[in-house]
Amino acid sequence: MTTKYIRNLLLTLNLLLLTACSLDAELFEKIKSTSEASTDLSLKISDLPTNVPESFPYYGQVQVTGLSSGLSSFSTPALSLQDSTCPGLSINADGWISGVLDKVSGESCEFKVKVTQGSVSVVSDVISLGVQNSLQLTLSQENFSFDSGAPTQNTVLNLSAPAPFATYLDYSIYSANSESSLFNGMNTGKILVPAGATSVVIPLTLQAGLSLSSAEHQTIQLNSGMSGLKPKIELVIPLEFTGGAPAQVFQDINVSDTHICAISDGKLYCWGNNDKYRLGLGAGDQDNRTKPVRVGTSTTWQKVALSSEGTCGLNGGKLYCWGRNDAGRSATGSMVPSEVTEPTQVGADSDWQDLVGGTHFSCGIRSGELYCWGFNQFGQLATGDILTKYSPTRVGASTTWQKISAGGSHVCGLDSGKLYCWGAGSRLQLGNNASVTRQQSVLQVGASASWQDVVAGNDHTCGINAGKLYCWGDNYSGQLGLGAAEAGNIIGAISQVGTASDWESLAAGGNHTCGIRNGGDLYCWGAVSYQSGVWEPTRIGTDSTWSKISTSYYMTCGINNGSVLCWAHDESTINYIGLGEDRAEIAHKPHRVGLSTSWSLPSAGYGHSCAINAGRLYCWGDNSSFQLGQNDNGSLASIIVPQQVGNSKAWQKIASGGGHTCGIKEGELYCWGLNVGFDFGGGGPPPPPPPPGGGGFMPMNVSPVSQVPTRVGTSKAWTAIAAGSGQLCGINGGKMYCWGQNSDGQMAADPATVPLVEEPTQVGTSDKWHAVGISSYHSCGIDDGKLYCWGYGDDGELGDGNNTSSHTPVRVGSDSDWTAVVAGNLHTCGIRSGQLYCWGGSYQGALGTGSMVDASTPQRVGVSSSWTEIASGFENSAVCGIDGGKLFCWGSDGWGQQGNGSAFTGAEVVPIQLGTSTNWQKVSVGERNVCAVNAGKLFCWGGNNNGQSALPPTPGAADPTTPTLITGF
C-alpha cells in the first residue's frame, strides 16, 4: 500500500456524545475535518472527557466514515484500544468507548485508539484519564407501594455534582416474580444521565394486566454510578391487584420502643423484643420475634396498648395484661415483682372501652369512667398522690370520658369534648403555659369543648380541635411542627400548626409526631427518621389509604389499606420493626411487614449464601468473584439483600462453593463465579497450587469468571450437585461426576498424574448414585444405599477403618441403608435408618459423640432414630442436623454457628438444640455461617463478614449468633 493510497483513504474519526435533550439518546456528530487520517484522529480523540468520577460509567464514540472512490471494497474499519492501562474500558465495532474504570479516585490510566482497514492502521496519540472523587447518588423516595395500573409515581435520582458528560447508569430489577416487564419504560436496564444534569426523574408505573397474585417485593437496584452501596428503589406490590383488600387486614396497631402488636379480624399478633414475656407467648418462650406471631387463639381482640416492657389489651370488653409486673404495670394487684407470661384477665368487668400505655403505667376507660395503674412518680395516674397503684384505680368521678393518651410521664384525655392533662409538666407539655414537676390531678386545658383528638408524646402534646391541629411543649426536634423558626424552643402556648382544617387523627412519639388528614393522607414531622429533623408536617408517600398510626420514642407503624407498615428512627430499634434484619436503608422508610414461607434448600458457601424460594433462586453476601450471579456491569461489591438470580422459577438444587456457585434447573446444570480449578467443566491447563487456606485462583490465560449462570454441557438429567472450595461433584442420570482441584484424590483421580480434573468425569460405572457430599479434601456418595468415600483420609474421614488417603472410592462398612451424607473439613457424617453417624477428625468436637478422639469408622451420635438432615462446612468443623424437626448444632463456634447467642464459647462436643421449634426442614453450614429453613421461613446466623447472613457487615459489630429471619419477600 503506497503513501498516496493512504492519503486518499479518508479515515475520519468523529466523537459522538450523548446530549441532554430527552430520555432518548440523541447523538450529534462533530464537523468532519479534511486533514489526514492520523492528524484527524488525534484532533478528534482530544475531545473525549479526561476527568472521570470514580465508578461513573464512561461513554463516548469514535466513528470511521468516508471511503474514497475505488477503495470501497476495503473491509469495514476495525477499532481497538491500544496499550490500554484502563481496565474496564472497551471499544466495540460501532466505535463506542464505554465501561466503568476499575480505578479509584486519584489514580490515572491511558490508552490509544487504533483503526485498521485492510492493511492500513492508524493509531491515535495517548489519551490520559484521571479518576476523580465519586459522585454521590441519592433517591428522593426509595419505598413505594402501589397497585397494577396505578397512577405514575416518580422518584428523583439526585447527583451531588453536575454529570461531567452524558452517560447511562445500569440498573437491575430483582423480584420474586418473573414478569418480563413490570414497569412501563423501565425495561431497558439503563437510565440516561444528560451532561451537566444534577437530577433525573425516574417514573414508575406498573403495567396493567400483570399476573402477580401475592404480596411481591420488588427492588430496582442501581448497579453503577458511584462507589460504595448503590441506591435502590424498594417496591411492595399489594396482595390484590384487582383493588380488593389484602388477604390479612389489620384494624389496630400499637408500638413501644421494643415491640409491636396489631389486631387483624379479632386476632392478636405481636413481634419484637420478648424479654419479660411482653409478647405474651407463654411460659418458657422469651425468644424475640422479627415477624408477627399470633398470641393465643382468641378472635375477639378489640384494642391493644403497649408500655415499655408490658402489654395490655381489650378482648370482648375484658381487660388483659402481661409482661413485666413490677410497679403494678400488669395490674395484678400484687406488690411482688413478677412476670406475667401470657394474657391474663384483670378483674371481672367486661365494659372496657379504651386503653393506653405509657412508660411503666397504663390507663383505660370503662363505661365512661377513667382508671389508671402502675408507676406514679409524676402524678400521671391523677390520683392526688405519687404512690404506685397495683390495680386499676379510678380517676375522679366523671362518667363521660371519651379518649385517653399517655406520653412518657404525662397523660391527656377528652371528657365531653373538653381537654384535660396531668402528670409531668416541666417542658410545658400540660398546656397551661406553666412548668411544673408534677400535676397530680386532672387539669383542664383552655375552655373549648370541641376537641376531637389528643396525643401525648414524650414531652409534648398535640390535639385536633374543629379539624385544626394544635401542638405545645418541647420542640427540640421540631415535633410541634411550627417551622424552623421555633426549632429547639419550648412552647407553652397552645399553637396552631398550619391552616389545614381536615386533620382526623394523631400519634405522638418521643421527638416526632404523625397525623392523618384529608381522608387518608399521612404526615409526619420532628425526628421522623434517623438523624433527621422535619420542622413542619410533611407528607409520607402518596398513598391516601392510611387509617391508623402509632408511634413510640424511636418507632412508627401504621395501617395502610389494611396492611401494616413500620419504620424506625435509630439503629437499636430496627430489628424490632418486622423486617427481620438490620437494614437501615429500608428500615428508616415505611416498610411493609410481610413474610414468605416458601423457602427451601439453603446453601451457605465460603462467604456467600443462596437459597431457593418457590423455584426462584436468591444469592447474597460476598460477590468478589461474581458468585452471586448478578449481571451487574462488573460490580464486585458484597450484597446483603438476597437478590434473585435471573428470572427462572424452575431452580431445583443449589450449591455454594468457595468463590463459585452451581445450581440445577429443569435438569440442566449451571455454574457461575470464579472458575476455580476449572470447576465449571470448561477444561484448560493445570492451575498453580491453591493459596493457603483455600480460596479461588485461576491461570491468567483462561477466562477466570462467569458473571451469570453458564450452562455446563447439554444434559438435562442432573439431579444433585455439591461444592467444595475448588471442587464440584454431581449426579447425572444416576451417574456420579466430579471435577476441579484434585490435590488429594478427592475428584476420584490419581493426584500424582491428574492434579486437576478439568471437566465432569464419571466416578466408577454405577448409575445408581443418589446422594453426594464433598469438602475441600475428600468426597462421599451413596450408591444404591451403599456409602463410599474417597480423597484425603489421614484422619479417618473415609470411614473404612484406615487412616490413609484413596483416590478410588472405598466402601464405608457393609450397610445398604444410607440416605444422607456430608463431608466436612476432616470429618464425615451420614444418616442411615434415621440414625446419625460421624467419623474422622474430631477437631473441636465435630463428631458430636462427646469425645475428642478421632474415629476411622462410623460412630453413632446419640440414640435418636429420627434424623433427617445433616450439614457441615467444607472447610470447618461446625456441624448441624435436624432430628424430628428439631435443629441441633455442634463442633466449632468461632463465628456463632452454634446459634446459642454467643460466639467463641468453645467447642460443643455433643449436639445442642437451638430453641424449641419442631418445624425445622433444611439446614446448610457454610465456611462461617449457617442458614436453615423453619416452616418455609429462612433464617441465617454466624459469620457475616461479607453479608452472607443477610445483614450489613459493620466493622467491629458482632456477628448474628442466633437464627435471624431473612425477610423482604
From TrEMBL:
Q: Is Signal given among the entry's keywords?
A: yes
Q: Which UniProt keywords apply?
A: Signal
GO CC terms for this protein? cytoplasm
Q: Does the keyword Signal apply?
A: yes
SUPFAM superfamilies recorded for this chain?
RCC1/BLIP-II
Query: Mind telling me which InterPro entries this protein's record contains?
Result: Ran_GTPase-activating, RCC1/BLIP-II, Reg_chr_condens
Which molecular-function annotations from GO does this UniProt entry contain?
guanyl-nucleotide exchange factor activity
Which Gene3D superfamilies does UniProt cross-reference here?
A: Regulator of chromosome condensation 1/beta-lactamase-inhibitor protein II
Q: Which residues form the signal peptide?
A: 1-25
Q: Name one Pfam family in it.
A: RCC1_2
* Source organism, top-level taxon: Bacteria
Q: Which PANTHER family match?
A: REGULATOR OF CHROMOSOME CONDENSATION (PTHR45982)
Protein name as annotated: RTX family exoprotein
Which source organism? Answer: Bdellovibrio bacteriovorus
